[in-house]
Every structure is written in structure tokens, then in C-alpha cells.
Specification:
UCP029720; globular; 22% helix; Lipoprotein with Yx(FWY)xxD motif; alpha+beta
């Protein structure tokens, strides 16, 4: 393989990688609740943020994560449009929006439920678009 062939192959690979990242769907949707529009997961379940999280770092692990499951991401997921992928303490990946890790709430049973909003003396909030 010649140097120019290698360069062409690398350029094509980079172009394809950028194109697929540019057209990747955001990891959330927008849903309607009694409190207005909120971010939801693919199933329409409300998403939340936690005041104790630091920018890009989840403070909700262990038993907390049982009640507040992380919005899981894959290592291959591409960040963009205000979304990033963070690494949790257990090594798994989680989506964050504007630096804030995203969670569902185990006690929400159907799309539109917002029972976690204000939980733990107001530390949990609905994630807004």
C-alpha cells in the first residue's frame, strides 16, 4: 500500500467517523409532565439531576444507584449537543446533560411520572431540556 493510499484510507475513515457522530441521535427525548417539558429516556421515563453530583462526576453509587438508576451510555457513544459520557465509580458509563449526570427514579412507574422531583430535601430535580 502506498503512502497516498494510506492517507486516503485514513481520511475516509475519519470522514465516516465524523459523519456518524454528527447524525447520532441525542440520548434523551422531551416529554410532557404536570410541571412542563422534561428530558426523558427512550421509554419516556422522566430524567433527574442530583445536587450532590460534581460537574461530570456522579455522587449516586451503591444503594443510591438502586433507587436512582443512571441513564446508561456505551463506551462507543459520541458526546455532543450538550451531552457528555462520564465514567461512574463502578467503571460503567452514564450520560450527562450540561455536565449533570442523568438518572431515572425507581418509583416512577409510567411515562410522565415525576415522583422523584424534590426528593431528599430538594436535592433531586427534573432534568429540563
Amino acid at each position: 500500500m502506498t503512502t497516498s493510499s494510506i492517507r486516503l484510507a485514513l481520511a475516509l475513515a475519519a470522514t465516516l467517523a465524523l459523519a456518524s457522530a454528527a447524525f447520532a441521535a441525542p440520548p434523551t427525548k422531551t416529554g410532557k409532565t404536570d410541571k412542563g417539558s422534561v428530558l426523558t429516556d427512550a421509554k419516556g421515563m422522566s430524567l433527574y439531576t442530583f445536587d450532590k453530583d460534581m460537574d461530570g462526576k456522579s455522587a449516586c453509587n451503591g444503594p443510591c444507584a438502586t433507587n436512582w438508576p443512571a441513564l446508561k451510555a456505551e463506551a462507543s457513544d459520541a458526546a455532543g449537543d450538550g451531552y457528555t459520557v462520564i465514567t461512574r465509580d463502578d467503571g460503567s458509563k452514564q450520560w450527562a446533560h450540561k455536565g449533570k449526570p442523568l438518572y431515572t427514579f425507581a418509583k416512577d412507574t409510567k411515562p410522565g411520572d415525576i415522583t422523584g422531583d424534590g426528593f431528599l430535601n430538594g436535592a433531586w430535580h427534573l432534568a429540563m431540556p
